[in-house]
Amino acid sequence: MDPKKRSSDKASQEMISQMAEAGQQNAWDRLETQLPQCGFGKLGVCCRICTMGPCRIDPFGEEPQFGVCGADADTIAARNLVRMIASGAAAHSDHGRDVAHTFKMAVESDNCDYMIKDELKLREVAARYGIKVEGRESKEIGTDLADAVLSEFGKQDGTLVSAAAYPPPARQKVWEEFGVTPRSIDREIVEIMHRTHIGVGSDYKNLVKQGIRACLADGWGGSLIATEISDILFGSPWPIRFGANLGVLDSKEVNIIVHGHEPTLSDIIVAVSQEPELVKMAEAKGAKGINLSGMCCTANETLMRHGIPVAGNFLQQELAVMTGVVEVMVVDVQCIMPALGSLCDCFHTKLITTSPKCKIAGAEHIEFHEDRAVEIAREIVKLAIENFTNRKGEGKIPKATERGIAGFTTENIFHHLGGRFRGSYRPLNDNIINGRIRGAAGVVGCNNPKQVHDYGHLAMIKELLKNDVLVVSTGCSAIAAGKAGLMRPEAAAKYCGPGLGEVCETVGIPPVLHVGSCVDNSRILTILSNVVAEGGLGEDISELPVAGAAPEWMSEKAVSIGMYFVASGVYTVIAEPLPVLGAENLTRYLTEGIEKDVGGKWAFERDPVKAAHLMIEHIESKRDALGINKAAERKLYDMEDRRALSVE
Ligand code: NFS
User: How far apart are the C-alpha atoms of 509 and 507, rounded to whole Å?
Assistant: First the structure.
């Protein structure tokens, strides 16, 4: 077992070796025990939707093959794919719903642990929902906004407000003409489950169409609600310094890792862990203090708003426990490996589940209730403090840590790119038009032990930067970039081509902009809308010289994200192919034909450098189409030009 073949991250390599020495299993080991994985599943041609099956289609069979009901490979793979979208969109959107409920509680109560932190954003978002803001108190506006966003989940008439308020008009027209404008969030997800039931639709394109509608309800609906209401309730991010990687753990302090997704609990833990009384309590136990760090997308939430250090991304959750210095790992929902339960049993580490939606064998369950948020957060922090004395020895913490700047948003990028006095997207558009910046790429998504951990993200991002493509990043990808030093402003000089490097250095931004957690991919959608609105780069997102990628994706959420980018007009490259390759027509549709319908399409490429070049080629083709690829020389007026000027 060569740890370098598993992870490109030094801290992770160290911990992987330690796990091997200690005989502890991790995700990479378990992947090996799964090999060879089921080929039918990989190709998407196994159906277990009803008990006439399970059926499977031999993709190499000579004769056309069908399941018992008559479904062919395209139908089976399309059903499986859109069910992945339903699950991914449900996860994001349910996160949005939970935040919206907390928001409603906050604005309706006079005695609540949460309050409105960003009044400006409250007013902006409320106005977009058609709510009167002038002359009204924040709480009044907030009550109307809470009702408005909550009704987006289950309303029976009309379409999603945000799908009409944010995207460029040309984009909305594409959706209308194709018939995929999302109606309400829950409805689109439910309709996927209905349409994929035995004996409903079998036309693969029509199945994908509903997948598109549901993922649009995720990106422009549920995820956007999660982002915007979180900004209002927990404060909008602002550029902030941070430290990242397992080295942020401290052998002398009480270590608490917040892991999962929703900021409702983690935000309160951030506040509570700094209370002098609790710090004193920790000191009385012999600790130097309380050290809070984040894992996965919760890390991105607490980092963006509070600068809390990031312990790691998805594949580092087991490695963090292996250090032996984690008193408590507190989790809510999503991307939490069940393996943590038994692993924590081998250490003094307490795994604490907090959501009724997510209980894990071997974990202690302390249910989180928003109306008692501070009280419960204190209970969890106290438990960690009590557990400090159970730690055996100093533990083994890898030294590797990096620093960087995170905290960019749709709103504050205005200021950084425009400078203090030019708050607009104009300088970004101008720099794209003049070719200093060739275009922009969103590099996002998970880790997957099938790829060398972090390598896919980093190799792709470096190749894009070298070719003057500005990168925005979220999720585990952003954490990978942060750990590798790509979010330091100095990284511009080291990794960027001359054009992008010059722009980053002039403005003082890192070449990779951390725009948040996975639900914050919605920020990328609104950034793209702003770029179109600024003018000079076409009328629709599909005309922009931009591309998206998820070089280490693994989750159903990533499928929903990828599809909402494609359906918003963005060319999207992923490493592990979608599980559809056994269905020839469906594969061809997703990678070619779909572009005619929605303006974007998928590509599959495991080599991250080759994938970067696919994105660069696409960006250049969009530049050609916009007519901005001609070398624009500056020409001074000569006498002849001056004479031609008619002055009346
Ligand atoms: Ni998103 Fe993947 Fe999870 Fe975050 Fe990381 S694994 S789809 S990036 S933590 S949600």
Answer: 6
CATH of domain 73-234: 1.20.1270.30
The confidence score (pLDDT) of residue 633 equals 46
Going by C-beta distance under 8 Å and a sequence separation of 6 or more, which residues neighbour residue 60? none
Q: Which atom of ligand 1 is nearest to the CA of 444?
A: 8
Predicted local distance difference test score (pLDDT) of residue 8: 98
CA of 445 to the centre of ligand 1 (A): 6
Domain ranges of the chain: 3-56, 73-234, 246-390, 402-626
Q: Does the fold of domain 402-626 match that of domain 73-234?
A: no
Q: Is 445 in the pocket of ligand 1 (CB under 6 A)?
A: yes
Q: Residue 473 carries which side chain, given as an amino acid letter?
A: S
Q: Which CATH architecture has domain 246-390?
A: 3-Layer(aba) Sandwich (3.40)
Instruction: Give the residue, out of 300, 443, 476, with the most ligand 1 atoms within 8 A of its beta carbon, to mutate for a pocket test.
Output: 476
Does residue 476's CB lie within 6 angstroms of at least one atom of ligand 1? yes
Q: Determine the distance separating the centroid of ligand 1 and the alpha carbon of 280, expressed in angstroms.
A: 35
pLDDT above 80 for 381: yes
646 confidence band (pLDDT: 50, 70, 90): very low
For 503-522, the pLDDT digits (tens) are 999 888 999 999 999 999 99
Torsions phi, psi of 202, nearest 5?
Answer: -125, -5
Ligand 1 centroid – CA 335 distance (Å): 6
Query: Would you state the pLDDT for residue 513?
Result: 97
304, 334, 473, 522: residue to mutate for ligand 1 pocket, most atoms within 8 A of CB: 334
Tell me how many degrees the CA angle 296-299-303 measures, rounded to the nearest 5: 150
Helix axis angle, 223-234 relative to 119-128, nearest 10°?
Answer: 150
Q: What is the pLDDT averaged over residues 488-514?
A: 95
| Overall pTM > 0.90 | yes
Instruction: Please tell me the distance between residue 624's alpha carbon and the centre of ligand 1 in angstroms.
Output: 34
| Cβ–Cβ < 8 Å for 440, 615 | no
For a mutational test of ligand 1's pocket, the pick from 258, 266, 297, i.e. the residue with the most ligand atoms closer than 8 A to its C-beta, is 297
Q: What is the mean pLDDT of residues 299-314?
A: 97
518 lines ligand 1 (CB under 6 A): yes
In the predicted structure, residue 175 carries a pLDDT above the cut 60: yes
- Angstrom distance (rounded) from CA 487 to CA 513: 7
Residues 218-236 have pLDDT tens digits of 999 999 999 999 999 999 9
In CATH terms, the fold of domain 402-626 is Rossmann fold (3.40.50)
Which residue's CA is the nearest one to ligand 1's atom 6?
A: 446
Q: How many Cβ atoms are within 10 Å of 115's Cβ, its own excluded?
A: 13
Confidence of residue 647 (pLDDT cuts 50, 70, 90): very low
CA separation for the pair 85, 563 (Å, rounded): 8
pLDDT category at 637 given cuts 50, 70, 90 is low
Query: Which atom belonging to ligand 1 lies closest to the Cα atom of 88?
Result: 7
Check: CB of residue 304 under 8 Å from CB of residue 240: yes
